[in-house]
Structures are given as structure tokens and as C-alpha cells.
């Protein structure tokens, strides 16, 4: 409020409002998906569709959109290596927290760990990636993502071509980080570098061909919804200005929300269930 008139905060320079809104909608969808997961696996609510093809398609849509948009937005700021280190560190904190407080729902190599690693690799390879034509980079990344998508099943391929991978690749936690996890590996939130790095780059490479530069601006302090879930998230939604709601969830806080909502909801509901 200024001089008796309501004023709206000016959007950060160069930020695509549509990207914020798409990421915000994807995050809301993700939270609803996690809420269903809690109901099914913590409270034994019978939702057959969730464990079937509709639930699988819902989950994959959330992952694809979030990672693709995260890659597209990554080059818009500076200090890629610094930002990647922070996100990777946040992933390590989530992993440690789940191992200590709810090992049955441990999150090892989750989405934050992946995004941090992807940003670090992108930062290191940035001089080379910038030499790739955007259209070519998008096409090659999309094809490589499709080829590597079945890597968790022990093979790579596309169409009628199929190449079986040696089982020795699927050995331990180190190989799991790259996408080759052994049969005994378990994580409630897992994104190996393969195939997801290529989907991330499918967003990065077109963005490097031209776009706004935001000089590394992250989410402003006090953004509603950062790292919240359940009732607290509902309060944040109701408190946010209606016109800016989707953008609020789509800004830099998306990493926090995406990484913390599932462990947070699992922990809270586990306590509720126990007592």
C-alpha cells in the first residue's frame, strides 16, 4: 500500500512469468501426489488407481516437467557452481535427516541431490555446452534421454534397438548415483544422473541460446510455502496474494518445496499414526 493505492511488487528483471506459473502448478501437483502417497502407504487407504498406470503417469509428468523447467531456468542466473553446491548440500541434509529420523522412508540420491549434481556438471561443462546449437542440443538431449530411460532395467535402447548392460555396473551406492542401482538399493526419492541429466540438459541447451539473465537472483526471503507441507502449506497458500500464487511457488523456493515436502509429510504423518 502506497499513498492509499495498492501496488504490486515488480517481477524480477528478465523472469519469465509463464515459467514460474508452470513450475508452481507442477509443485502443487507434486504435493497432491505426495499426499496420496502418504494416504496409501502410511494410512493404508485403498486407491488402486494410484498404484496403477494413472498414478505412474501422474508421477512421471511431475518429474519430467520439474526437471525440464529447472534445466531451462538454470542458465538464467550466475554462479552455477555455487548454486549447484548449495542444492547438492541441501540434498545431503535431506538424506541424513531421513536416515536418522525415518530410515524406513530414507531418501538417498533424491531430486535435490540430482539437481545439485546436474548444476555442478553443467557449470563445469558450460564453456562446451554454449558451443552447441540450441536446436541440436535439444534434439540430441531428448534422444539420449529416451535411449537411457530404461537404464534401471539393465538395458538402453530405442525402438527396436536394445543393448543389454553388464550387471557389474549395478554394484553399489557409487554406481547408483550414476543411475545403475543394485537390487538391494532402496530409496523413497531416487533420481540417478542417467537418464535424468539429459532431460535437464534438454532444458539447459535451448535456454543458453538466448534468454533473460537474472544475475543469479533466488527466491526472496520469506516466500510463502518454502519447505512447507500439509496444513502449513495450506496456510501459506491462503496467505499469498491470489494473483501471484502460482509464481510464488514457481520461484527459487521450488527446490526447497520439492526436496522437503515428502520427508516432512512422512515424518509428520508417521508421528500422527504412532500416537
Helix percent reads: 55-70%
Strand numbers in spatial order across the main sheet: 1-2
Report the strand count. Answer: 2
Name the beta content range.
under 5%
Given helix and strand content, the structural type is mainly alpha
The total domain count is: 1
Shape: globular
How many helices? The count is: 11
Query: What does the radius of gyration come to?
Result: 19 Å
Query: What is the CA-CA span between the terminal residues?
Result: 46 Å
Low-confidence spans: 1-14, 210-260, 267-275
Largest sheet: 2 strands, antiparallel
Order of helices and strands: HHHHHHEEHHHHH
Indicate the mean pLDDT.
Answer: 77
Helix and strand layout, with pairings?
Blueprint (H helix, E strand, L loop, with lengths): L16 H25 L6 H4 L1 H21 L6 H22 L9 H19 L4 H15 L6 E4 L2 E4 L8 H6 L14 H15 L22 H10 L5 H6 L3 H21 L1
Antiparallel strand pairs: 1-2
